[in-house]
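Data card: per-record layout.
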Amino acid sequence: MLKLFKYLKPYWWQVLLLIFFTGGQVFANLQLPAQMADIINGGITAENTDYIWQVGIRMILFVLMGAGCSLLSSFLSARIGAYYARDLRADIFSKVLSLNSEDLKDFSTASLINRTTNDVNQIQQTIMMMLSLMLIAPISCVISLIMAIQTAPDMSWIIAVGAAAIATTITIIMVLVIPKFKIFQKMVDKITLLTRENLTGLKVIRAFNNETLEKKKFEETNTGLTKLIMFVEKIMKITNPMINVIFNGLTLLCTYIGISLLTKNFNYLGDMSAFTQYVTQLMVSFLMLSILFVMLPRANVSAERINDVLNTKSKIIWKPKTEGVPAKIASVEFRKVDFSYPGAKEKVLDDVSFSAKAGETVAFIGSTGSGKSTLINLVPRFYEPTSGEILINGIDIKNYEKDDLMRRIGLVPQRGVLFSGTVASNIKFGAPNATDEQMKEAAKIAQAANFIEKLPKKYNAHIAQGGTNVSGGQKQRLSIARAICKNPDVFIFDDSFSALDMKTDAKLRESLHPIIQDMVVMVVAQRVSTIKNADHIVVLDSGKVVGKGRHQELLKKCKVYQGIVKSQLSEKEFAREMKEANA
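The structure for this 583-residue chain is written out next.
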């Protein structure tokens, strides 16, 4: 929790103002019992009406002063808390964006959402409480104690009794409740995870008729969370009547002792009244501190979860500035690249080497799990090679500044990802400064213009989160248009044509051909028909390159490639392909 106090630094002057107004509020409130004692002793007892009015006006002024200071301190604490939470959320979001897939493996999406929302809200509420209670309670507690002892020293032992009673009550509550906070946060994460899974996988759940199973899983977690909340709420609700009993008991005790002392000295009436109010103020202050100490452990759990994210160090270190001068002619080269996941014994990629230059297409094919997508993900540094070098435009990607490398790469992922907004905002996502003409040309090349023009608002048509209001093929075409609009040096298609029919696929490749003359195109494919004309075909098997060349060459010399081709063609078609290759 202490580590997150640095977010208060920009608002130090507002914190000072808050301290000033809080001090004014405490001062005004603690003057009232003394003024009331003056009215009783100097006015009522002495039957001095003028003195009663004089002190009464002072009391009204103190009330107005306290109310004004309270209003201003409440405003400042709310303002500081809101800006504090804003800055903290922004830093968490920026941190998550800066991390790669490997760095985030310890955090589920649901957990990250809760850390950015629920945990930040919990800390915000605690900070707001601290900015007020941590100032009001100690000051009020100390001054009330001093004033109470000075006013009626004979009754000061009552304070110790009240303090002991409240301390015992709060200690019992903390022992019972605090261990539940960590469990509570984990269960909230699980609820969010199950909700997210069910919303995103709704079609699959219905298709397999598994609604009952998913309901049961959710109900188990939801029931567990409910029981936990009920337990905490029961304990917390018991607090109010227990505290009321203590307060009322103290008031009765003060009255009883005070009356016994009045028999000796009637002038003690005002002091007794003031003492009772000071004791009440003291107990309230003590209670506020106790409540804060109950909140702090829960906020501390949230702070630890947030610090886990903020303290995560990326395993990929970017250069502040690109070292070296990249060649103007686009090229991609892999030199003896190995890759394995941390802790894994087997390599996902083993001694992969190839090169391609501007105007060339290099395609990757292989069975499931052969390492095709992993290889593609190494280029934009989503993962770091275990050994070897990857060069783009003659410079090792480790020597690039992040933005410099990313602007050279146009990635079309296996699953088209769209963002809530419009068709135009999605196509211009990687090139916000692109003109409307460039955007429309990109859509035309990607074979997306036809369906866009049929939309009610065309390029201003709404795209739902995740692109749920467009088909799979339309989503892929918009993803391809986005990469084209970026005008990169290297195009990466990670099996990005799988949702397209053969006719659209052929048209798209034909439209792409003129614009890729100055670019390197890297394609991951499952269908041989989509890569037959590639300049370089790299055949992968269990992470190793088992063949490199053009389609006809590989049919002659690579048995793995022959097996892939044979599995996708009829016997007659395969025989014809082999005949052409050997001709």
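Known properties of this structure: The radius of gyration is 36 Å. The domain at 341-582 is CATH 3.40.50.300 (Rossmann fold).

See the next section for split statistics.
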